Structure formats: structure tokens, C-alpha cells
Amino acid sequence: MDIYIIHYKKMIDRKQYLSSIFPDAIWLDMYERETINLDDLEIYKSNNSEMWYQRIEGIYKDLPKYRELSKAEICNSLSHIKALELLIMSGKPYGLILEDD
After folding, report:
1. Torsions phi, psi of 8, nearest 5?
2. Angle 52-83-72 (CA atoms, 0-180°, nearest 5)?
3. Closest C-alpha to 4, from 84, 88, 92, 91
4. Is the pLDDT of residue 46 over 70?
5. Residue 64's pLDDT band (boundaries 50, 70, 90)?
6. pTM for the complete prediction?
7. Are 21 and 96 in contact (CB under 8 A)?
């Protein structure tokens, strides 16, 4: 089973600690809030509030209010998507996706 860990590069102590527990983990730290360019993200260019309300219609009794995600939240989400892509490409039936916190 592959283990994927979503990691924020500035948290060096977390990586050292978790590396001792999961020495063969696959670290995902390619998306960083300081360097990500949101202009490169096509989904970010669209009208996200309209998309939000279309996606949640009929799911909630009281609709949660739309809000823009922070760069940290966007990077975390992209890292989770990347982990899922890697897991699918591995062909293994399951994997473990963790965050470094």
C-alpha cells in the first residue's frame, strides 16, 4: 500500500518526524501558497460562486454561503487531487492519504 503525505515545505520538523514513521511515503509538496499562480488555474478564472450554488443545490436545507478559498486551501486541495491521481495510476486497490498535521 502506498502512503501519500500532503506536506507544506516550511514544516521541516513535521516531515522529519513523519519520515521516521513512514519511511517509504510519497511526499506531495509541489503546490505552495507562496509560489502558486492562480492565473494558471483555469477553474479559478470561472465564476466560482455560480458554480458553487449549482453544485450544492438540493444537498443542503440552508445553503452554505460561498467564499473564496485561500491559497493554502487551494494548494491543499490540489495536492489531494494529485495524490488520488497517483493512486489511480499505481493500479493498487487502495492507498492512504495523510496531511502532515
Report:
1. -100, 115
2. 55
3. 84
4. no
5. confident
6. 0.77
7. no
pLDDT tens-digit readout, 15-27: 999 999 999 999 9
What local confidence, expressed as pLDDT, does residue 91 receive?
Answer: 95
Give me the pLDDT at residue 5, please: 97
- CB contact set of 1 (below 8 Å; sequence gap of 6+): 92, 94, 95, 96
Contacts 24+ apart (CB under 8 A), 92-97: 92/1, 92/2, 94/1, 95/1, 95/2, 95/3, 95/4, 96/1, 96/2, 96/3, 96/4, 97/3, 97/4, 97/5, 97/6
Please count the other Cβ atoms lying within 10 Å of the Cβ belonging to residue 13: 9
> C-alpha grid cell for residue 81?
487531487
Three-state secondary structure along the chain? CEEEEECCCCCHHHHHHHHHHCCCCEEECCCCCCCCCHHHCHHHHCCHHHHHHHHHCCCCCCCCCCCCCCHHHHHHHHHHHHHHHHHHHHCCCCEEEEECC
